[in-house]
Specification:
The complex is a heterodimer of chains A (about 290) and B (about 325). By secondary structure, chain A is an all-alpha fold. In chain A, α5 crosses α9. The longest helix of chain A has about 30 residues. Chain B contains 16 helices and 2 strands. Chain B has about 325 residues and is mainly alpha-helical. In chain B, α5 runs parallel beside α10, α5 crosses α15 and α13 packs antiparallel against α16. Chain B has a two-stranded antiparallel ribbon. Classes of the chains: A mainly alpha (about 290), B mainly alpha (about 325). At the A-B interface, α1, α2, α5, α6 and α7 of A face α2, α3, α5, α6 and α7 of B.
Chain lengths: ~290, ~325
């Protein structure tokens, strides 16, 4: 391993420079760097606003960076939470619970199906999979009305089921998982079959441990969806509502809440960004197989 | 070769029957043999069919009905579509806005995602990891785009107004999000800011996986600069990722609504930020005219599928 790290890249680096001019490098990376700053600026403003005391939020001209950082706004968020007639821990529980169930269920169901699509060429599988790819091409708004009617008929309105069940079958997850699983050599699976291993054993003990990067990727995408789901279309009862919904209610308040609102969006941002930073290399590994081939 | 062709010509109806029968038997055997595979697919696929495929069919059907949820749907033929296309002025605004936003944010966001991914790819490993987070964070972080409300706030405390007034370019604050001429450019900026999403990650990953020896071979064959390298080697080997990125971009740019509504309000001033999805939600969740809303959903569906297919056909020609 160490040998590989030491030898290979250095050789490549030299060759790569063949097509690079220094002036070109400098201009392009200056552009990249500036764009990076532009991308970062709003997030910096959000964090800075969240840390501003009230008198700093309304000054002219506005200051980009906070002078006297304070956690007042965050404390306010929790104070408002404590005052709401549904205990705030309930909203947190709702989001954490639906996210946990939805994400883990999605990973298991999508992996099961992906394994069959990738490694068992059964009749109609190609057609079924191409329907999944087609489903990537239209958004959830198209299906919203019929889904509402389906939920109504199943009696799932105003329950977690309405939030969780559709998320279990998100097409992006199955697509990424199937593409990734195709890399696993058939010969390994075949020899296990010879030894009498059941399909479930092969799936659970051989395939799944090998596609860890892919399930981390499915986790982050499913997590993003469910973590940010307000569920307001399907859920009416206050005690079943989710964290993003409750927080959007807080930030919908008046001017005095400007700092609180910034604190809320920072709080909601921290979790997915942290998850992404931790899992980044796995996600990139999975996305390398994400291409749509003809 | 010729003999084979002749043999094909001589196939009779009986041969075809036999062939079809054989195929049928083969399929049946395949299904029996693949029982376990179907069991693996079933739990996912039942949910998928119920919430992703069936709704499209239902939506197409409901588009031909008058349906207000309380009474059963009443078939009215093409009436909804006739009303949409010829009588509904707001829908025409919505179509125009959707196309404007999609055309401005889709291609620019897509090309920018690729170019940034391409530049990031040449950075050292650690800096690359940081840059990926920097570019991906805006689309990752849910509600944080609301900070643009503060940037483009209509009073003097908004950053943009503050900056322009300090520089002496304007004297009175501009109502960025409630003046119809400013709404589009402001919202396009915000949407572009969040456009480095799933496709961007796919590009980063695809570029990382390109076989270096191909580029080295290209150098020997006389590629002179990075742009030639990009066109002749990088782009052709990125085709699958380019397709994937295109699908993700097109789907999200036609479904544009959430961010616009959160910033410009719903309904927005002069319908300046009113898109097809806004119109769909207006009739579906506010007025409960489900038949009419389904007709809008069907049009949205066709727009997305058509554009996806068209762009895929175009991408097939890249570098070829």
């Amino acid at each position: 391993m160490k040998q590989r790290l030491l030898n290979k890249p250095r050789k490549k680096l030299k060759k790569r420079n063949l097509n690079r001019s220094l002036s070109g490098d400098i201009t392009l990376f200056l552009v990249l760097f500036l764009m990076g700053l532009v991308m970062l600026l709003p997030i910096v403003i959000a964090v800075s606003n969240a840390l501003k005391p009230l008198d700093e939020l309304f000054v002219f001209p506005p200051r980009f960076i906070v002078r006297h950082p304070t956690f007042e706004n965050f404390i306010d968020v929790f104070r408002i939470m404590a005052d709401s007639w549904i205990p705030f821990s309930r909203y947190i529980f709702n989001t954490v619970f639906t996210t946990a169930i939805g994400v883990s269920g999605h990973v298991v169901l999508a992996s099961l199906a992906a394994y069959a699509f990738a490694k068992h060429k059964v009749p109609f599988a190609d057609g079924m999979f191409s329907l999944v790819v087609t489903a990537l091409m239209f958004s959830g708004y198209v299906t919203q009305i019929p889904n509402y009617l389906t939920m109504k008929n199943l009696g799932w309105l105003d329950s977690y089921l309405a939030l969780v069940v559709p998320a279990l079958a998100s097409p992006l997850g199955l697509f990424l998982m199937k593409q990734f699983m195709e890399q696993i050599p058939d010969s390994i699976l075949e020899s296990a079959r010879m030894d009498g291993a059941s399909e479930w054993y092969i799936f659970w003990n051989m395939v799944m441990p090998n596609v860890r990067p892919a399930w981390l990727t499915l986790i982050i995408f499913a997590f993003q969806d469910l973590w940010n789901a307000t569920g307001s279309t399907y859920i009416y009862s206050e005690q079943l509502k989710t964290l993003p919904y409750a927080l959007s209610q807080i930030s919908a308040g008046t001017i005095a809440r400007a700092g609180v609102s910034a604190a809320v969006s920072v709080l909601m941002m921290v979790v997915p960004v942290a998850v992404f930073i931790v899992t980044q290399s796995n996600i990139i590994e999975t996305m390398s197989t994400s291409g749509i081939k003809e | 070769m010729k003999a084979k062709k002749k043999a094909e010509e001589r196939l009779t109806l009986a041969d075809y029957k036999q062939y079809i029968k054989a195929r049928f038997e083969q399929t049946k055997r395949g299904i029996r043999k693949g029982k376990v595979a179907y069991l693996f697919i079933a739990p996912y696929y039942i949910i998928f069919a119920l919430f992703y495929i069936l709704p499209v069919a239902v939506s197409i059907y409901l588009g031909f009905t008058y349906f207000n949820i309380l009474e059963p749907p009443k078939f009215i033929g093409w009436q909804n579509y006739v009303n949409l296309l010829f009588a509904d002025d707001v829908f025409q605004i919505a179509i125009k806005n959707t196309l404007v936003f999609a055309i401005l944010t889709g291609p620019i966001g897509y090309i920018a995602s690729f170019i940034f991914a391409w530049l990031i790819n040449e950075l050292p490993r650690r800096i690359r990891a940081v840059m990926v987070v920097v570019f991906y964070a805006p689309s990752l972080s849910g509600q944080v785009f609301l900070v643009w409300n503060v940037v483009f706030s209509g009073d003097v405390y908004g950053y943009m107004n503050g900056l322009l007034m300090k520089l002496g370019i304007i004297n009175t604050p501009i109502l960025w999000l409630t003046t119809s001429t400013y709404i589009t450019p402001v919202l396009v900026t915000v949407v572009l800011w969040t456009s480095m999403s799933t496709g961007f990650l796919s590009f980063v990953a695809g570029l990382k996986g390109i076989d270096r020896t191909m580029i080295e071979a290209g150098c020997v064959d006389g590629l002179k600069n990075r742009w030639q390298e990009l066109w002749y080697i990088v782009l052709p080997s990125m085709k699958p990722q380019l397709m994937f990125g295109a699908v993700m971009t097109i789907t999200s740019s036609f479904a544009i609504h959430d961010k616009l509504a959160a910033l410009a309000g719903f309904p927005s001033v002069d319908y300046a930020a009113h898109t097809v999805v806004s119109h769909l939600l207006d009739y579906g969740s506010v007025r409960y005219e489900m038949g009419y809303a389904s007709a809008i959903a069907t049009i949205l569906f066709l727009m997305m599928i058509f554009c996806n297919k068209a762009v895929q056909a175009m991408l097939r020609k890249v570098g070829a």
